[in-house]
Amino acid sequence: MKVRSHITQNEALLFEMGSPGKVGYQLPSLDVPAVDAVAALGRENVRAEIEGFPEVSEVEAIRHFTRLSTWNYAIDLGLYPLGSCTMKYNPRVNELVARLDGLAWAHPYQPEALAQGAMEVMARLEAALAEITGMDAVTLQPAAGAHGELTGILLIRALLEKRGNPRKKILIPDSAHGTNPATAAIAGYTVENIHSTASGMVDLAELERVVDKDVAALMMTNPNTLGVFDDNMAGVAEILHKKGALVYMYGANMNALVGIARPGDFGVDVMHLNLHKTFSTPHGGGGPGGGPVAVKKILEPFLPAPRMKRLRNRWAFDYKRPRAIGKVRAYYGNFGVIVRALAYILAHGGDGLRNATVDAVLNANYIRRKLEPFYDLPYTAPNMHEVVFSDDRQAKLGVRTGDIAKRLIDYGFHPYTVSFPLIVHGALMIEPTETESKLELDLFIEAMTAIAKEVETDPQLVRSAPHSTRTSKVDEVGAARRPILRWKPRETGSQTAD
Amino acid sequence: MTYPDDRRYTKEHEWVRVEGDIGTVGITDHAQHELGDIVYVDTPKIGARVDQGKSLGSVESVKAVSEIYSPVSGEVTEVNGILAQSPEKLNQDPHGAAWLVKIRLSAAAEITNLMSAADYQSYVGAES
């Protein structure tokens, strides 16, 4: 018999682990006469076996998924500094509230009279988001950020069509997220890029030159992807508005503004929010997102139906919305996410939300100050909630941002965002969020400092990282060029060496 | 890197080499270097009409997807088949075997808008 490493080091798929007939459940014996399925349904409708179906016991299923879960990195394990992603902690009070029976078991077809509590939750979140953003109305329907973006641009198109001309172009700064041009294109617009100034802001002179009667809107991220707040924003909005165009603000970085500045006050006409970033709902694989869209009054008639309406003493859904762009999602949005976001807002209160913003900015600036001696900082304007370094100094020794990120895994941290934004050469984009204590930030700073020194003394150590993980450096290029997209069963009977 | 002077260059890092009324189009060595390992190339279909300065397709690397802007206007007459199977050729031989498309020029005078090899050389020197 061959000794092999324990299964936790080399977990098979569930499909590969079962044995025929093994089950993880017991059914009570029939209390009605047994029926022959073939006689009742016909032979062609009865299947004897589902090929390859995993047959395992309860403990095997539990162990399998528990083992897989230990391979994961999560915000519950430590700092998760993915820039632009805002990987903040998801407070447990959110989960507690979302699991209340009346909310967890609510059904979208429940009669309005029995859904007043759920509707109140939605109405309160709409009101809170309108207040936080300085806008007039909010829809909670969009399921995530990019979906919110598309909803926002469709609202702009609807308004401009109503005015007689939907126009042709959307302007997008070169520091934008990739979803911005994708959104514009899907909404039927062509995209025109505008360049950033040396300090990473929109160039007002260039903007003045390119805004004409064909421009429907500018899509702008503020603070932008460099973490820099564009303090020309009011001027930017004025240039657009003068020509009858609108301003869309990409709200992914709203966590740098909450409680401090309101987009509605500096000229924004429509924006989305990422509930799974700014408002602490689970992120990415952790659950569905939420991408509410907030608008000024002029866009309110076009918001998707139904809208919430307050009658004398109760809430009702208003479907009579003749100018609405149509539904953008089934029912009313990702309700469980809506509940969590409201819990976060109410648990913090106004002062708490403002503190979270201030702490997020402080944490990013602390990292900037501590790492500036070791990494190049191409844009030196004051930064808000994130900081973007460049690998220029390390690249001279043959080590790139992707290598440093992999080495960071050896130090027990999730990597930062690599090679984005594209306007920074070899970007290291770091966003700590307000979640982290000074203790955790110092550990991260020590790790990044140690890596910078390793690059000078032993660049190969960094280039070949990670060294402490289950899998050594994976061939990302090979995986992208020749991806293996299909699982194939192992040949039965043969014992493959582990 | 020296850039061959049998062709003209764009600010967006494409090149075009004209023989008769056919222009062969590719991306520059500087472009492939900046993109890093290229994993996919999206080229237009034969017969497609393209305009100078407008999108011709895109190049995907492990870092990003980047637009390719056509250096000339005209009709696509040939697409380089090896890129579908071996996108890495674009990293290895961007000025030679890894050309992208051939275009029948509809406005041959356009190439005067483009840079010479020497101008492009100093342009990328200044940019990097």
In short:
The complex is a heterodimer of chains A (498) and B (128). Chain A has 498 residues and is an alpha/beta fold.
Ordered list of secondary-structure elements with their pairings:
The complex is a heterodimer of chains A (498) and B (128).
Chain A: H1 37-41, H2 58-70, H3 92-98, H4 101-104, H5 116-133, E1 137-139, H6 145-162, E2 169-173, H7 179-186, E3 190-194, H8 204-210, E4 215-221, H9 233-242, E5 246-250, E6 270-272, E7 293-295, E8 307-310, E9 315-318, H10 335-371, E10 387-390, H11 392-395, H12 401-410, E11 417-418, E12 427-430, H13 438-457, H14 459-463, H15 476-481
Parallel strand pairs in A: 2-3, 2-4, 4-5, 5-6
Antiparallel strand pairs in A: 1-7, 6-7, 8-9, 10-12, 11-12
Helix pairs in contact in A: 3-10, 5-10, 6-7, 10-13
Chain B: E1 8-9, E2 14-19, E3 22-27, H1 29-35, E4 38-42, E5 49-50, E6 55-61, E7 65-69, E8 74-79, H2 82-85, H3 89-92, E9 101-105, H4 117-127
Antiparallel strand pairs in B: 1-2, 2-3, 3-9, 4-6, 5-8, 6-7, 8-9
Textual characterization of the structure:
The complex is a heterodimer of chains A (498) and B (128). Chain A is of the alpha/beta class and 498 residues long. Chain A folds into three domains: 7-70, no CATH class; 92-347, Aspartate Aminotransferase, domain 2; 357-481, Alpha-Beta Complex (Aspartate Aminotransferase, domain 1). Chain A is 35% helix and 10% strand. Chain A has helices at residues 37-41, 58-70, 92-98, 101-104, 116-133, 145-162, 179-186, 204-210, 233-242, 335-371, 392-395, 401-410, 438-457, 459-463, 476-481, and strands spanning 137-139, 169-173, 190-194, 215-221, 246-250, 270-272, 293-295, 307-310, 315-318, 387-390, 417-418, 427-430. In chain A, the strands form three sheets. In chain A, strands 1-7-6-5-4-2-3 form a seven-stranded mixed β-sheet, with helices on both faces. In chain A, helix 3 packs antiparallel against helix 10 (335-371) and helix 6 crosses helix 7. The longest helix of chain A has 37 residues, at 335-371. Chain A is globular. By secondary structure, chain B is α+β, with helices and mostly antiparallel strands. Chain B has one domain: RNA polymerase II/Efflux pump adaptor protein, barrel-sandwich hybrid domain (OB fold (Dihydrolipoamide Acetyltransferase, E2P), Beta Barrel). Chain B has a six-stranded antiparallel β-sheet. A three-stranded antiparallel β-sheet of chain B has the order 4-6-7, with no helix packed on it. The longest helix of chain B has 11 residues, at 117-127. The mean pLDDT of chain B is 93. The chains are: A alpha/beta (498), B alpha+beta (128). Chain A binds chain B through residues 178, 418-420, 422, 476-477, 480-481, and chain B through 36-37, 39-40, 60, 62-65, 87-88.
